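Onboarding guide, step 5: your first structure request.
Type a short instruction followed by the sequence, for example:

Predict the 3D structure of this protein.
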Amino acid sequence: MEIHRVPMSIYAESTPNPAVMKFVANKMLIEQDHVEFQNIEEAQPSPLATQLFHFPFVKEVFISSNFIAIHKYNVVEWDEVATEIRQFLTDYLTAGNPVLTAPVPPKVPTPSKDPSSDTEALPERSEIEARIIEILEEYVRPAVAADGGNIAFVGYENKIVRVQLQGACAGCPSSTMTLQSGIKNILQRMLPTLVDDVVPVV
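The system replies with structure tokens like these:
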């Protein structure tokens, strides 16, 4: 029986985070929005991520619908290894190998609890929180995804919006600037008097 190989092209794209390179595919890689693996143990549901962790310089793997963002250790430069990674991904995906073999539940950032408070956070969102999430989804996420990352809403209290940066945006030197000048400005413009600041949580 003839094996039908899937025509596949991958190109490498730098991100604002010098430690992260984004490898963009010409087809959908996963059905869910994104998955993130910080070590080879977490990567068990993804044979592709598991293989990537065999490269000694790979620190974290972030897979979105049509790209893979790889966070490297500072032991090599991207111009030394990007071609090797791109070729590996092209060969792996062209052969029809699976990206995921099991669904991966999204990592839900948990708001830090005030130890002096015994009250549990209410599961339902307030109207303001719902609107903040809408704005992040519509105006911020596409730009963050273009840089190889993701943003997740964590909480809103006392006019402070807490978010978690993922993928290339996590630990990026310019992410503070992105939060302050970009996301905060958008939220303050669209929700005047309701947002004083935007802070990242780990």
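Each response can be followed by summary notes, for example: The mean pLDDT is 82.
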